[in-house]
Every structure is written in structure tokens, then in C-alpha cells.
Design a protein that fits this description.
Blueprint (H helix, E strand, L loop, with lengths): L16 H14 L2 E2 H4 L5 H6 L4 E4 L3 E2 L9 E2 L9 H12 L3 E6 L10 H14 L4 E5 L7 H9 L4 E3 L9 H4 L5 H14 L4 E8 L5 H13 L4 E6 L16 H14 L3 E5 L8 H10 L4
Parallel strand pairs: 2-5, 3-4, 5-6, 6-7, 7-8, 8-9, 9-10
Antiparallel strand pairs: 1-2
Helix pairs in contact: 4-5, 5-6, 6-8, 9-10
């Protein structure tokens, strides 16, 4: 049975209205999108108030229709070749020290959009050399050359989310493949020694705690360094219902399991998202001298 009422430990963080409007004005001026807005992230206000955002390239329309996601599913727009330059300008205006670049899935493009990812990273490397760069990519249809192309541009962290347990993939991640996503993370470690890898999963979709622990084990088996675990919250009525609101105690248990498995950084909690406080995770990794 679906739980309809939010429990007291699941509350949306409020951010500064002025800071939020400032960030939105800058994004509109530059013609940029953020996953924060498109995916209806509950942390938007807090992150915008901290001058952090996850830039979403390649438009705001996705070619897949995942059951959990609020991003629009419609015909994608042509690739904006000026987008990397606009992101560089936005990063400079905001004075960011850590940047996260993600995208919609673009199965309509021959390379899945990987060359556009690589160009964005290269421009940031050249023009804002002090910034650390995290990419959160789709699976590129499992194309090894696409993954290697992004890696060649030199991101500090390569993030790809598993999202859920294998049993739930048909309903939660239609068009994706659990083994293909694991293989992507494994390839990153093989192709670019020293590149950190990261992944995230959602809970509350009907998975068991044993299944979550098994996913953690699979991620460690391919060398994943950073893990995020957060509560699934239904963004629209068209999306999958919440099956369970996971307790804070269970999130603490997941954090202990992940730490015992050897993840370098673990963030687990009801409102944790893949890119939430990504700058703090990067700082923690630097303190550990990783890589």
C-alpha cells in the first residue's frame, strides 16, 4: 500500500528566496538548465542559496521515460554548441569551486551526447583551471568509446547512478540495464587510473534492505568510491508512487553497511540526492588524499 502522508523526517529545506531568484535569473540569461529545477529536487532552495547547482546539458527533454523521473519526455532539441561557453561564464559569475555537469539521456544522438560532455569539461579545464569537475552521465547505450571520450577531457569524478535494485529496473529505469551501468563504472576505473567514481540509489520503491546491501556490494566490486542513498519522493502524479518512507534509523544502517564495505564517502538520508553537497564530498576526498 502506498504511503500518502509525508512523515516528519521528510521535509523540504527552505532556501533564501533572494538567492534562488538570483540563480534563476543567471540561468535564464545564459539559456541554461539545471537538474535541480527539471527534476523538482527538494533541495533546490538550499543549494541555490549556497551558489551551487548541477548544470543539465543537452536540453531539458529526455528520450527515455523512467518511472521515477520528472524530466520531460518529448522530442529533444538540437544540441546547443554554445552551451559549454555559457556554462563557463556562469561558473565564473558564481565563483564556483566545484561543478557538476549532467544531462538528459539522448538516445537520438549517435554518441549519446558524449562529445558535448567532453567539450564542456575541456572548456572548464582550460578557462577555469581551479575548479573541480564532476560529471553525472547517462549510460550512452553502453558505448565504450563514448565513456572514454568523456574521460579523456579530464573530469575529477565520474558519476553514474544505478538508481535502484536490479529487480525493479523494468518499472523504475525503463530502457536501462543494471549490468550495463555497472560495466560503465568498471570501465572508468580501467580507462583512467585515479578518476574517482560515484553512484547513487533511491530507496522507498519496494526494494528490500538485503537488495540494497547487494547493490552496495556490486558497486564496491567495480571500485566505486562515493555512494549516495536517498528517499524516493514522487515528483508528479504520473510518476511511480512511494511504497515506503524509509526511517532515519534505516538510513543510518545503510550508511554503516556502506562504510564497512569500504566506500570513501557515504551520504545517506531522506533528502540526500546524487549531487547534493557534491562540493563537500569532493573536499572530504581531498582530505583523504584520494586519488
Amino acid at each position: 500500500m502506498t504511503t500518502k502522508r509525508l512523515p516528519p523526517w521528510v521535509t523540504k529545506r527552505a532556501g533564501s528566496g533572494e538567492a534562488t531568484h538570483r540563480m534563476k535569473r543567471l540561468l535564464r540569461k545564459r539559456g541554461l538548465h539545471t537538474v535541480c529545477e527539471s527534476a523538482r529536487c527538494p533541495n533546490l532552495g538550499e543549494c541555490f542559496a549556497r551558489d551551487t547547482a548541477t548544470f543539465m546539458i543537452l536540453g531539458d527533454a529526455c528520450t527515455r521515460r523512467c518511472g521515477f523521473c520528472a524530466v520531460l519526455h518529448q522530442t529533444p532539441v538540437p544540441v546547443d554548441r554554445n552551451e559549454p561557453a555559457q556554462i563557463v561564464q556562469a561558473v565564473g559569475e558564481l565563483g564556483l569551486k566545484h561543478v557538476v555537469i549532467t544531462s538528459v539521456t539522448r538516445d537520438d544522438l549517435p554518441d549519446g551526447g558524449s562529445a558535448h560532455f567532453a567539450e564542456t569539461v575541456r572548456r572548464l579545464r582550460q578557462e577555469v583551471p581551479s575548479v573541480t569537475i564532476e560529471v553525472l552521465t547517462p549510460d550512452f547505450g553502453g558505448r565504450p568509446e563514448a565513456i572514454d571520450g568523456v574521460l579523456a577531457a579530464g573530469p575529477d569524478i565520474y558519476n553514474h547512478n544505478l538508481e535502484t535494485v536490479p529487480r525493479l529496473y523494468p518499472t523504475v529505469r525503463g530502457g536501462a540495464d543494471y549490468d550495463r551501468s555497472l560495466a560503465l563504472l568498471a570501465q572508468v576505473k580501467r580507462s583512467r587510473v585515479g578518476c574517482l567514481t560515484k553512484s547513487g540509489i533511491m530507496v522507498g520503491l519496494g526494494e528490500t534492505s538485503d537488495e540494497v546491501a547487494a547493490v552496495m556490494g556490486d558497486l564496491r566490486a567495480v571500485g566505486c568510491d562515493v555512494l549516495t542513498v536517498g528517499q524516493y519522493l514522487r515528483p508528479r502524479k504520473e510518476n511511480l508512487p512511494v511504497v515506503e518512507y524509509v526511517s532515519p534509523e534505516q538510513f543510518e544502517a545503510y550508511e554503516r553497511i556502506a562504510a564497512a564495505l569500504g566506500f570513501s564517502v557515504v551520504l545517506a538520508g531522506p533528502l540526500v540526492r546524487s549531487s547534493f553537497r557534491a562540493d563537500e564530498a569532493m573536499a572530504a576526498l581531498k582530505l583523504q588524499s584520494i586519488p
